[in-house]
Each structure stands twice: as structure tokens, then as C-alpha cells.
Amino acid sequence: MKAAVLRAYNEDLSIEEVGFPDCPEDGVILKVLACGVCRSDWHGWTGEHPRVKPGNIGGHEYCGEVVEAGPASNWKVGDVLVAPFILACGTCPQCQMGAQNTCLDQRLPGFLEPGAFAEYVAVPRDHNLARLPEGMSPTLAAGLGCRVTTSWHALTGRAALKGGEWLAVHGTGGIGLSAALLGRALGAHVVVVDVVQEKLDHAKGLGIDAAVNAKDGDVAAQIREITGGGADVSVEALGIEQTVNASLECLRPLGRHVQVGMPVGHTAQMNVNMSAVYQGNLALYGTRGMPAWRYPSLLGLITAGKVDMSPLIAREIPLSDTGKELAAFNGPTPPGVAVITDFTR
């Protein structure tokens, strides 16, 4: 099968013929129908993600059709499925308490094992997977494995965002735009922040209430003015020091900061304004992924027409363009995300 293989950090991926994967006893092999290209993949491509080594096949946002099922599988050939990027064991204490996204024994296709930058992907522990809802395109569903699910859990499972509250979103890439759209669907007022005016205009065109260009000065002060005292919830969607501090400083007293952006490599350690936390009595939440059992709450929102996530998808690309999309994360990116839908070239 064809796969896009990491051979050297910061270089174009190598399109190669590799061996067909073995089917897990408790899982399936999926013919990949669509796979998103995510900033988390970029962290591995640059060498900053400690688990991603040369020879890796990335890709953790995928939707696919079952072509082979193991003897302990929950699915059958022909089923079309989406998967969270964290495949939980289901039996450890974290899983038993419903927090599968903090599983103590995680399987991570695309990071620790071959992912979906390929024609086929082996998926173990397929109790984590969910059926693609009727009428939803695999291209849209590909984003549900990471960016959309992570945003949904950040807002509802961690920060408990309420209708009528102000939500600030720092960074309007895939995960930030997802958070903004979902926050609006939950009835919140939303202000987004970015350095690319095109992305801010795109968000405003989708009904987002307000936008702040970080190039125009003190972001936190602008948000406090727009919101009449500060945001109730602020999502940091980049994982860098500047936006983390802007997120903390834009909150009103008793506000909730959610760390969605991945601080890894040179950004793992940063200087944070803990005085803002102390003085404002702020709550800080970390979040990563979403427990698989929460899929129905998100899929139901989308299939009921309560939120349209289709504006998230900006480009459909062939497998051979994956490396170019990863390289684009080196600088400010245009609106929307790229999804691989052609695995033949």
C-alpha cells in the first residue's frame, strides 16, 4: 500500500510502497477514506514530539471503511467508522471512571505506531470507534478524531461553558475555529484572536461575534473591553507563551482558562503570569482528546443541524501533498484545514 513516511525531520514526506498492516485481534483494518493534516502531526514532523521518530507514518484524524475485522472486533466488513486519536484500554482506573482520554495504557496510531497517512491503517481496541452518521461525509468526519472532539471536550467536559457567557479563543487554526463554532452553538458570545486578518474575517463571516488581531496591541485589554470586563472562558489553541498569557490575562475574575494547544519541545517550558491566576482567582484546565463515550453528544449536535462544521474543511489534497501541508505550519496558515482524500498519488 502507499504511505507517506517520515524519513527526516523538516523534510518532505517520502511516498513509499509499504507492507499491508496486520489486523489486530481486538480491532480492524480500515481503508482510509479521509485523514486530516493536524498541527500535532507537525510537532512530530519537526522532531519536537518526543514519540515520533524517522520511519513513522503519521496521521491520527481519520475516517475509514472496515476491510478486515479481528475475531474480538465489535465491527464488521463494510462499516464506516471514525476514531478518537487516543485508543483507550477500557480497563485501567482512568478508563473505569470514564476518563478514557487519560488512559494509563494508550495506543496512539500516528505517533507510537503507524497512522493514517496511508491507504490502510490498523486500529486496535476498536471499542473506541464510532459509526459514521448517515449523511456525514468522511472528509468532515476526519476532523472529529482530534480537533473537533478535543474542542468539544474542552468546552463541555472541562470548562463547562454556558450559554450567555463570553468565550475567547486564541488562535483560529483547526482546533481554534472548531472551539469558536462549537462555543457559538452552545449559546456563548465568542471573540477570536489571530495574527492573520483573513482568518479573523473568515470567522466573523461564520457568525463569530468579535475578532482581535494580535498585531494591534494588547490582546487582553481589547478582549476585556469587548466583553465588558473579561471573558468567562478562554481557550488557548496554539501552545505558545504569548497566547497562554493573553488567555490568562483576558479573563474576568473567576474565569476559566483551558489549555488546548500542545506545549511541546521548545514551548514545553514557558513564563506564565501566575499573578493573573492568583489575583483573578482563575481556574486552569488542561485537556487532551475526548473520552470515546462522549461521541454521541457531539455527533448528535452536528447531525441535528445545531452546528455546521463544514467551514472547517478548506482543502482536499492527495497523499503526496501531505508534507507541503506540514511545512505550511512553520508560519501563519490560511483559514481552514487540509484533509487527504486521494490516497492513490
Describe, in plain words, how this protein is organized in 3D.
- The protein is globular and about 55 Å long.
- It has helices at 39-45, 93-96, 138-142, 147-158, 174-185, 197-205, 219-227, 241-249, 274-280, 295-303, 322-328, and strands at residues 2-5, 14-17, 28-36, 61-69, 80-82, 120-123, 130-131, 166-170, 189-194, 210-213, 231-236, 251-259, 283-286, 313-318, 337-342.
- It has 11 helices and 15 strands.
- The strands form 3 sheets. Strands 3, 4, 5, 6, 7, 14 and 15 form a 7-stranded mixed sheet that branches. The chain has a 6-stranded parallel sheet with strand order 10-9-8-11-12-13, sandwiched between helices. It has a two-stranded antiparallel ribbon with strand order 1-2.
- The protein is 26% helix and 23% strand.
- With 345 residues, the chain is of the alpha/beta class.
Quick description:
By secondary structure, the protein is α/β, with parallel strands linked by helices. The protein has helices at residues 39-45, 93-96, 138-142, 147-158, 174-185, 197-205, 219-227, 241-249, 274-280, 295-303, 322-328, and strands at residues 2-5, 14-17, 28-36, 61-69, 80-82, 120-123, 130-131, 166-170, 189-194, 210-213, 231-236, 251-259, 283-286, 313-318, 337-342.
